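Q: what sequence does this backbone want?
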């Protein structure tokens, strides 16, 4: 079994050499290039060392140049997808791709009116991979200006609160918006990045508008992730969110979802997500609990706690939130608690 490993490694190297030559040979054939890129992705997916070898033979740089120079959108998309998947599989490749030049190229694709929705999605995917668990990537995404571009896309990619996902055009836009939201999440978290958190605070008014106008899981889940990570362990960001009216909006959404949960089981699950987000806002910031008392949130949480569809972890999250709601509680919260 041990003797097979060198053989497989050599086969992998041979395959990648041939595929790179094939990619160069088919410069005038976009469909063939796309197929070769997909095959390269497949080879690198099967072997974590393949990405390193592919970089050593100049493969990563060739694909970067291909993504920049090709006039065919399908080649650009496949090239970016391959780059992202290789970086996702190998930290060394991720680090080697983290350059100001590549971040600038990706920003250019995102701001280019000629870029279609799928090309923008692939560009966002590469950004997400490069920034994930990577302080250097988080710094570059800020310094190059990508985070401002992502923030603008967050505001504008979806223009209708109705969100008719049965319409393919709307659905494709939603997928792009969701990817942008996920990328902003990794810009501020793991490791936590205070500077990026503060930049993302500018999106709170937009976030509030979406929560007030579109209480759908497809919107609430990613937005709550974004809020929770942007607020995490950052008192200034928490203050910004509360000042924008965000805590009031979360409370209103939570009350509505708990009410809906008596007829719709999924609303109870969604209410737990909102509860966790609300909890992130008041943890270590008990002064904000006065906002909760206006909406009788403790009573709402107690009612939600009794919901039979919730599992033990979800109920624990509710109990934790109740604890934070009643820490150093004011007179109004005490009255609610004793009701």
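A:
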């Amino acid at each position: 079994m041990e003797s097979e490993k060198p053989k497989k490694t050599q086969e992998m190297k041979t395959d990648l050499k041939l595929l790179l030559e094939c990619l160069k040979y088919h410069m005038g054939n976009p469909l063939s290039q796309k197929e070769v890129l997909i095959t390269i992705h497949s080879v690198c997916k099967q072997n974590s060392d393949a990405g390193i070898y592919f970089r050593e033979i100049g493969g990563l740089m060739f694909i970067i140049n291909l993504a920049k120079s090709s006039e065919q959108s399908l080649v650009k998309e496949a090239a970016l997808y391959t780059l992202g998947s290789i970086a996702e599989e190998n930290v060394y490749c991720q680090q080697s791709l983290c350059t100001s030049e590549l971040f600038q190229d990706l920003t250019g694709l995102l701001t280019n009116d000629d870029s279609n929705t799928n090309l923008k999605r692939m560009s966002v995917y590469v950004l997400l991979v490069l920034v994930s668990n990577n302080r250097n990537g988080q710094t570059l995404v800020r310094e190059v200006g990508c985070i401002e571009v992502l923030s603008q896309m967050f505001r504008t990619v979806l223009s209708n609160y109705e969100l008719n996902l049965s319409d393919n055009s709307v659905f494709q836009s939603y997928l792009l918006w969701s990817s942008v939201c996920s990328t902003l999440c990794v810009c501020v978290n793991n490791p936590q990045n205070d500077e990026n958190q503060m930049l993302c605070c500018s999106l709170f008014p937009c976030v509030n508008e979406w929560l007030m106008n579109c209480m759908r899981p497809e919107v609430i889940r990613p937005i709550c992730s974004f809020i929770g990570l942007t607020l995490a362990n950052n008192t200034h960001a928490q203050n910004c969110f509360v000042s924008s009216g965000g805590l009031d909006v979360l409370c209103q959404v939570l009350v509505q979802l708990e009410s809906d949960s008596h007829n719709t089981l999924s609303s109870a699950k969604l209410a737990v997500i909102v509860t966790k987000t609300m909890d992130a806002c008041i943890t270590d910031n008990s002064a904000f609990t006065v906002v909760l008392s206006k909406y009788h949130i403790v009573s709402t949480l107690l009612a939600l706690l009794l919901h039979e569809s919730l599992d033990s972890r979800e109920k624990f999250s509710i109990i934790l939130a109740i604890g934070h709601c009643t820490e150093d509680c004011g007179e109004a919260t005490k009255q609610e608690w004793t009701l």
